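--- STAGE predict ---
source: upstream dedup step, 1 unique chain passed
mode: sequence only
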Amino acid sequence: MDKQIDSEDLDRDAWQDAEHSQEFEYRSIDKSSIASVIFALLGIAFLISKVLVVLPLIALALSLIALSNIKKYPEELIGRKPAIFAMVASLLLLVLGSTGHVYVYMTEVPEGYERISFRMLKNDKGTDLPYSEKALELDGESVFIRGYVRPGAKKSNLQKFILVGDFGSCCFGGAPEITDVVAISILGDERIDYGWGIRKIAGKFRLNKNKAPTAEKEVPKVFYQIDADMVK
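--- STAGE serialize ---
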């Protein structure tokens, strides 16, 4: 009789173990957890370009969503460890990337040069000037600006080129306003090739009040010009 009871208990335990095993097999990994890891890995690019800060931010948000889902449905979902990895990695990338970009910003302008931006060069709507009032102040000054090389007919060994402030007017066929471009003329023997990366230009700013012709057919005349003694 005892042997029969023991046998029934063993069968019941085996059946419960099999049931638990089957339940475990059917637990699915949370999709947000997988996506968070992918975006965390892509977020490494933020260390190179501050524009890509959105990648680690997305990874962080997805990891928190995944952890919340797994906590709410522990019997149905797995993926806690990947989500924690993505959360830690994204936070680390945000800290390291932000620190690095701040350091670069604080140290990239050569001594004796003033940092300017394309936003400063937009013509002021409150005046009748076709160019910005700031450009009048900058005429003849040593400046530093960041931008993208606008592709022209020639794409390598460039000594003269057009610099724009964003990808839209640089690489996707946009038609930039005349105050959204700066003609760059490199002094000395240095030359550059067209590329997608941002360029750092330092040199003497010139305001051509009557517009000056350039070699670019797409931008035949410009108000702004920089005679560059540093291009990176």
